[in-house]
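Handout, section B. The chain below has 341 residues.
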Amino acid sequence: MNIRKVAEMAGVSVATISRVLNHPEQVLPETRDHVLAVMKEQNYTPNWFARGLNLGTTKTVALLVPEIESETQQRIISGIETVARNKGYAVFFCNTHGNAQIEEESLHMCENRRVDGIALVSTNLAKERVLQTRESGIPCVHVGKNRDSGCDTLCYIDFEEGAYRLTRHLLSFGYRSIGLVRNLAERNMSAQMEAGFANAIRESQQEIETRLYACEASVQSGYLFAQQLMQQDVLPQALITAGDGQALGVLKAAQDANISVPQKLALASMTDSPVCGLVNPPITALELPASKLGMAAGRLLFDSIENKELELGVPQEMVLQPKLKIRRSCGNEKYIYELFD
């Protein structure tokens, strides 16, 4: 069954069928209802991809993410998908596992499918490769602070400010040896964390022993990492982890080793989750506006898709700020901070 056969069976022209599909408001109600009834009777489904090519749009956008298992990135996905759905677009989700080769393959697939736009989350792609995609006419938005991504439009959370505030919070309790646990799969986030951490230490004008670590963003990795520090007897007074998974692993390792938190080890995380507020002690963390970040990125992407001729030709950045959630894992004893958590 194709559009010509539907037109023949309905006793109308192919142009009328096209108007029913694309501009139903231009067709008399009785004619529209008759055509739709014939389509339903014959189980006719329009070839939306071919139709999109004729109209110069496929009504699809792509989202390339490095860690689809991450709660933060799931919320980013949800935000972008919400905007796309409201615009009548479908979304391709590509989980790249932070692997540059998989990213390249996913980008090539998106180009072949002629998506209308692409959102790249913390991409490892070369700047020249992204520029090639943009030059082909596909708008791109980068989610994450990476001005060398090849995208003129950036949308990101200010992790530098977040790390600065977490470090200042720990310093206020008098800790003099503080470790920063990075996630090397998130290189841009790690760079921002280090900058904010260093700024807070420098501004304190105190003798603070600082240590930089790295491990994967999972509970198991955090657990094994903490165990290794304990076995080497090099555990600092306080730790800031890149993610809540790492923090939960560290907390479990400390409890198994009878190391009390925060009396012997203060603990804070750059990302929050519902579990952080339920464990004992609850973990101080940054509440990230990840869903808003996804929605902002989606809106910026659709601005580019729908108004290509209005592009300013200069870099555009949207920065969102995290919120410090003070709990008891760093030594806080003021209930007021947790009252509205």
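Note. The CA atoms of residues 152 and 312 lie 10 Å apart. Compare this with the example in section A.
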